[in-house]
Design a protein that fits this description.
With 135 residues, the protein is mainly alpha-helical. Helices cover 58% and strands 0% of the residues. The relative contact order is 0.17.
Length: 135
């Protein structure tokens, strides 16, 4: 199965199957990067001799960049333009997942409450599959 979201079919001979709502939910969430983030959280949490807040912020920014680049690479298809819309949505998904997971860099901000992240995760996950990329 291709990681690229297929929401437009140009010709009857196009062999790509159009993605359903649930297919898009799966393809928009960068599971590999979120899994790596969970590992990063565990490593930083166990470290006793590092400034946890700054390290988490650096890892978070690196994760955002990595998500965009990784998604572009995973969605590359011959003869099609880069999937910038999908890469942007996946990067947003990474942001939302980090915001929702307890223990990230946001916990060092005074306004952060876990409830906000959980609510954002629910609504983002429900709404983002309604977006159909043009590329």
């Amino acid at each position: 199965m291709s990681r690229r979201v297929h929401s437009v079919q140009y010709q009857a001979t196009d062999t790509a199957k159009l993605d359903t709502y649930f297919d898009k939910v799966l393809k928009y969430i960068p599971a590999e990067i979120v899994g790596a983030w969970v590992a990063v959280i565990g490593m930083v949490r166990d470290a006793s001799d590092v400034p946890k807040g700054p390290v988490l912020w650096i890892c978070f920014v690196a994760g955002l960049v990595l998500t965009y680049v990784w998604t572009l690479r995973q969605t590359r298809e011959t003869g099609k333009p880069p999937a910038h819309t999908q890469a942007s949505i996946s990067t947003g998904s990474f942001f939302v997942w980090v915001f929702a997971l307890v223990g990230g860099p946001f916990e060092y901000l005074p306004f952060y409450r876990h409830l906000y992240g959980s609510l954002l995760l629910v609504f983002y996950t429900l709404l983002v599959p309604l977006i159909n990329p043009k590329e």
